[in-house]
């Protein structure tokens, strides 16, 4: 029998581990333990079936991580690779698990209290420093291994992607085939994984075991009295929940700050416009239809990046179209000194041949919109200069084109020095946002036992301290113009991997007769 697995298991105890990775010994962090063990007093440790191992600390003896957020091993077992557990949950109807778990022996740390090494305690950032927090997590991980089970497992996790479920699907059905939309994945760990038969695999476990179970404790549980423990705990919780790529972690953490919509509700004019000089322009859809007034005020947010946009119906009658911007209260730390004060405006009316983008909202003789995309002007970039341009303001405009009124979009851009765009894409529909539904994985255990029952979906939980997080209250009967305007929020947040998107462009569009927004999001990196 090979004793290599035993030596690796003993050496892994006390090391850091990233819970977002698959549970394998090769993913342990670093060469040294993060906790102090008594390495002065050692003994020979007898492992049944594997013999005796010398110079083992007396704190090591031979004899699942709870929570709703799936671990890295969970994702690896079921083949989830989207980067968003909410997206995986939405695309999977049922989950099942069946298999054999054979444990040959356990090794664990038997020392209380556990004490972190001074190197680890001193590496904890005392302030909210995204770069330092990301370096800590990348170097030490999120948890510490305190116990390992060695043996083998033959598991068949089942991911049931039933897109058109039927009530009788799981009743009196002896077997479920692939045509029902079911994916069955078989997984072995330990033993000879090349054999297909369980009977052939079983005798090979003793000679070719592997680590199949891990026991962890959070690193933060051993940081009592250490300045910055709260910041590290918050960063690790965000990392485990949303699982951004480790290379993007510093940017992801930097963007998890408070956001708000501009203009704020107190700034919205609810009464009629008194001055005739300030009368707002209006859009006409047909001969007998209602007018849609347009708020042409500029909405700017200073030097704070924008993470979302929406069209909104303002006023007491909800008949005034406006544009709102979601932005950070304070700029991210990495961009704080890089966003310049100067603003440059660019609109769809300035697009060459913009008349080719004019589309009637309803009738051709009445109001149109310009669907030309608004982007920054490449002429703003100086030769050899590293800079990116992000949106920091927006405005709706109504202009005349021949005998028609045309709705245009203008955007204000700010220069971000020493940065560059690494990826961009357009968000076409608000449904692309992955809503975080809590309790999904807590309810899957009984899904296969009970018959299929159509359940009413619970209302989405809005985590917002605002009095009216979705907008000021309005009478239901005043929402007639919603059939002409799509007021969905086009925003991206932590659940949209890698979680640090910024708005760099937008355009107006028509979808099923409704005026709507299309927003261009980009990822920025700082030049090294």
TrEMBL record:
Domain of life (superkingdom): Eukaryota
Biological processes per GO annotation: plant-type hypersensitive response; regulation of salicylic acid mediated signaling pathway
Any GO CC annotation of this UniProt entry: plasma membrane
Name recorded for this polypeptide: MACPF domain-containing protein
Domain MACPF residues, every copy: 73-156, 180-239
Species in which this protein is naturally found: Buddleja alternifolia
Pfam families: MACPF
InterPro entries from the UniProt entry: CAD1/NSL1-like, MACPF
Transmembrane segments: none
């Amino acid at each position: 029998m090979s004793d290599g697995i035993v030596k690796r298991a003993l050496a892994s105890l006390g090391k850091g581990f990233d819970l977002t990775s698959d549970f394998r010994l090769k993913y342990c962090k670093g060469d040294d333990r993060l906790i102090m063990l008594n390495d002065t007093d050692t003994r020979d440790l007898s492992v049944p079936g594997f013999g005796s191992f010398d110079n083992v600390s007396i704190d090591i003896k031979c004899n699942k991580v709870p929570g709703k957020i799936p671990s890295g091993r969970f994702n690896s077992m079921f083949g989830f690779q989207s980067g968003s557990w909410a997206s995986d949950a939405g695309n999977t109807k049922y989950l099942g698990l069946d298999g054999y778990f054979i444990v040959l022996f356990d090794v664990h740390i038997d020392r209380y209290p556990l004490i972190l090494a001074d190197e680890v305690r001193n590496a904890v950032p005392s302030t909210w420093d995204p770069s330092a927090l990301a370096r800590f997590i990348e170097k030490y991980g999120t948890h510490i291994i305190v116990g390992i089970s060695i043996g083998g497992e033959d598991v068949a996790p089942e991911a049931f992607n039933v897109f058109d479920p039927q009530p009788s699907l799981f009743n009196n059905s002896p077997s479920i085939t692939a045509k029902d939309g079911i994916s069955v994945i078989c997984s072995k760990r330990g033993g000879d994984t090349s054999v297909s038969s369980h009977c052939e695999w079983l005798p090979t476990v003793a000679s070719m075991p592997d680590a199949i179970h891990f026991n962890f404790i959070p690193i933060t549980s051993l940081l009592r009295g250490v300045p910055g423990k709260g910041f590290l705990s918050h960063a690790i919780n965000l990392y485990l929940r949303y699982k951004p790529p480790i290379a993007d972690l510093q940017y992801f953490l930097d963007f998890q700050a408070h956001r708000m919509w501009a203009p704020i509700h107190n700034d919205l004019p609810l009464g009629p416009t008194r001055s005739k000089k300030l009368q707002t322009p209006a859009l006409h859809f047909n001969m007998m239809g209602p007018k849609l007034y347009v708020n042409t005020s500029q909405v700017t947010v200073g030097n704070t990046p924008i993470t979302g946009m929406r069209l909104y119906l303002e006023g007491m009658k909800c008949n005034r179209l406006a544009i709102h911007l979601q932005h950070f209260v304070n700029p991210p730390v990495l961009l704080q000194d890089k966003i310049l004060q100067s603003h440059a405006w660019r609109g769809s009316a300035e697009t060459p041949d913009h008349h080719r983008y004019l589309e009637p909202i309803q009738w051709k003789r009445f109001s149109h919109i310009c669907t030309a995309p608004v982007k920054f002007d490449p002429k703003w970039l100086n030769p050899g200069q590293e800079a990116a341009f992000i949106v920091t303001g927006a405005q709706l405009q109504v202009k005349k084109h021949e005998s028609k009124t045309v709705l245009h979009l203008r955007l204000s851009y700010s220069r971000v020095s020493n940065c560059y765009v690494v990826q961009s894409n357009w968000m076409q529909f608000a449904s692309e946002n992955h809503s975080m539904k809590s309790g999904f994985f807590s309810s899957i255990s009984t899904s296969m036992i009970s018959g299929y029952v159509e359940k009413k979906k619970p209302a989405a939980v809005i985590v917002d301290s605002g009095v009216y997080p979705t907008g000021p209250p309005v009478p239901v009967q005043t929402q007639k113009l919603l059939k002409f305007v799509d007021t969905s929020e086009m925003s991206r947040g932590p659940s949209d991997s890698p979680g640090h998107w910024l708005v760099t462009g937008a355009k107006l569009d028509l979808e099923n007769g409704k005026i709507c927004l299309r927003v261009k999001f980009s990822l920025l990196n700082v030049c090294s």
